[in-house]
Amino acid sequence: MLFLLRKSRETFELLDLSNSDVSIGDYLIIRDDGNSYRKILLQVVDISYVSISSEFEEFIRISISKEIEIKDYPSDHVMQLTQEILDAKVLLCKARGSIESDVFNQGIYWAPSRMRSSVLPLPASELIDALRPLKNIPLNIGYLKDGAPLHIDLTDLDGSLTVIIGRKGTGKSHLAKILLVNLVEHGARCIVFDLNNEYILLKENAKFITLEPGRNLSFNIRDIGKQTFLALMEEIMELPPTSALELSRIWEKLVSTSNLTVKHLKQEVLNSRINEYVKDALLRRIEMLVSSGIISDISTFDLENLMKGKEGKAVIVLLRGLPSIYRRVVVSLIIKKLISLLENDKIDPIFLFAEEAHLYQQISFWEDLVTRMRHIGISPIFVTNEPDAFSDFIYRQADNLFIFNFLNDRDLNTLSKISKLDADSIISMVRSLPSGRVLTVGNLTDGIPIIFDVSKERYFKYGATKKAFKQFYQGQEKNLTLLKPARVVSSSQILKS
């Protein structure tokens, strides 16, 4: 038995007298029995016990009296009634929209009757199917509470900003890998900045190309261009403006004589009549880039050629072990090359996966990319375990959010301010999520928050954790058994009844 207790703006409190199997994240429908064509969609965000007052106790007694007929008052009946009162729960719910004449909208402009309303459960699977029955590229990304598979439309990631956040070990990277594999299988081009070398396939696949800076990833100095090289020197390697002017002059001289090579650049700086401090600053920075293998006279990185063809591809850039400054250089050069190719329509739009993006580029760099991404043709997918690593601007621009568990109050408070959900929903629902379960909201779900268990299917190796007592861990494998869908009890008439 569920009864409408009180309402304050979009918050509804329901009285649960039957110890029903309702969990945080579940959906309910309030149907006004006097106007059955009008319904309100609620989501449970918290569950608590009632705080008994004389007025509240009387309301409970009236509610219970509808279900039982009392002819006398023996002590066992009084005890039963007392226990039901003490066991009564209050479901804190947030309104997610209303349904009027089978048409859903996210606004609510009426209040249902307290005593003449019915509260019914609504499986999330039926809610999603009712809101979005057709999907261009359906993907079974996981399973809902009732065991029903959750299908999303991969095209909702196209031209969108997607953010995956959660505490360490909750399944962020696993979800990102599922999205990556399925995007590639359906013909998408992807670039992955892999900070911990986690995107290594269990089985080799020609569609997945792994690049390691300094080994099979280097940039020809002539292809980089003067403006990009100067920006790299000033913004990342902190070259003073006066030194940058001298470098620009030397660069122009070498270009005019068709002698622009790493060797000639170093030699020209060494022989030039410039201040010794400026000369030393230039030589040290050039030597750093050359010794890293990132800059050379022979390019091993041809992004345009890698992205050719009709099949989907993923270019995975391994960043583990690189000093921070080299990571910034590699990412900056790849992004600049990528933007140039996209703006000149030389390659198709791509998906960009960036794990812990704040560790290898400044936030302003990513903000600029997010601002221009739709016009350029880049669909970023950011993955992080630090909610405050990104600015509010990036979260406000996010079209899709996947939020795994957080326990830290600071993280939860950050999320409550920047997400598309209200603070109560975020703090309560995210804190209660077990590992592998995620809250998602955005274009993928038509703005309706959905909680689901991510599919256990594994395509990549686990991120390796080196341990001193490895002899105790040998043979201990994680359970990779796929979740099996349970039998779904249909209640499809709820939306139409």
Describe this structure in words.
The structure is a single chain. The protein is α/β, with parallel strands linked by helices and 497 residues long. The chain has three domains: 2-122, no CATH class; 138-217 and 300-466, P-loop containing nucleotide triphosphate hydrolases (Rossmann fold), CATH 3.40.50.300; 219-296. The chain is built from 15 helices and 20 strands. An eleven-stranded mixed sheet has the order 9-8-20-19-18-10-17-16-11-15-12. The two termini are 19 Å apart.
Task: Please name the defining characteristics of this protein.
about 500 residues; Rossmann fold; 20 strands; about 35% helix; disordered C terminus
Could you describe the largest sheet, including whether it forms a barrel? 11 strands, mixed
| Alpha-carbon Rg, integer | 29 Å
N-to-C span: 19 Å
Q: Can you tell me the residue ranges where pLDDT is under 50 for at least 5 consecutive residues? A: 477-497
CATH topology of the largest domain: Rossmann fold
Number of strands: 20
Q: Describe the global form.
A: elongated
- How many domains, in number, for the residues? 3
**CATH level-1 class of the largest domain:** Alpha Beta
Q: Which percent bin holds the helix content?
A: 25-40%
Put simply, the count of helices is 15
Strand order of the largest sheet: 9-8-20-19-18-10-17-16-11-15-12
| CATH architecture heading of the largest domain | 3-Layer(aba) Sandwich
